[in-house]
Amino acid sequence: MIVINMKNKTLTNRTSARVKTIIALAVATSLSSSFAYAQASMASESNEISTNDSKATEVNKGTETSFEDAWDFADLYDNEQGDYLKLSGRLQLDSTWVDSDQGDFNDTLWRRFRFGFKGKYGEFKAALEADVNLNDSLDDAYNRLTDANVSWSLDKDTELKFLKQSAGFTLDGKTSSKKLLTPQRNNLTNNLWFTSEYFTGVSLKSKLADGWSYKTGLFSSDGSDEISISDASYFALFSTSKKLAKNNLWDKGEVSFDYVYNDTHEDGNTRDFSQVISTSSQFKQNSWGLQSDISWGKGDLGQSDLFGVVVMPTYQQSEKIQWVARYTYLNSSEDNGVRLGKYESSVVSERGDKYQEVYAGVNWFVNDHKLKLQAGLQYAKMDDNANDGGAYDGWGFTVAMRSYW
Question: pLDDT tens digits, residue range 46-64?
Fold first, then answer.
């Protein structure tokens, strides 16, 4: 990843940023043009075939299905017993601009590129995926393994998984980057969740009666890029959720509870919290949605206790267009307990004690979450009671492309 402070930007970095901006615009324009052409073709073909509404609908559905079938390239093998071998991966691109009282920042970069395989044979599944940095030269592009695991289905509702895997908690922490409704995870998750995400360990998840489910696991906090448990220490995770019955207030509802015990270690690849508690919820009623997260962490190794709240309403305008808003609040019990988000921290790297953010954005689902374009504007402010460089007050705007297979 290239981090640029615009005040000290070199000619080389300016050229690189321009090239990446051109690439981002080219990708977005190509996607937009392709989709617009597809829509025009559907309309034209529909008129030529028949003016009958039912036939036009069939043509539209057929064209959309043809576009979605492009993702079938990832299917390498399958059989009638449900066994399969597939390519897996994701490609994500960001263009971001930050304008604050403390300084400016902009960059266009490949946010993530991951590539690998996943397969199933009988009761067993396996996944192997590598994270690659497309912003670096080919020799330095490999970052680490992400998913590198084997799972065993004990029954149709219970799965036991071994080796390197995602350890998710908090609202955005247990949401894959493939399906986030905003370009970046909220700053509550950025502060409390273990952002390395993939750890070597063992986990068990199962669906229970009456809409209940759970996931529990024991993981090494070793920061190795591959599979390893030799350094650092461990953490334990327990999550449970309950799907709520439909009523007058919501069509779909779910509430979740996460608890993490972390044996903090100076060499650990986790945040410095010995315990994290998170309660989150998701509700939908017609086109409206509401997600929330209330979390608390007990600090250790110099990190103070931290409390945070996220509220995120959504509105689904159509099958393709979704509007998203978000409010985030974070407060630490002592000075310098809160860190800024991904791109704001490129301007201010120090910490403060109270953070607030307001975000508004839109998602365009070209092919559901498999291919979407996102744009979001945010205003963030962080107070710094210690007055030692952690204050921040500024605006940010991000345009993003997200794709996975």
Answer: 444 444 555 545 555 566 6
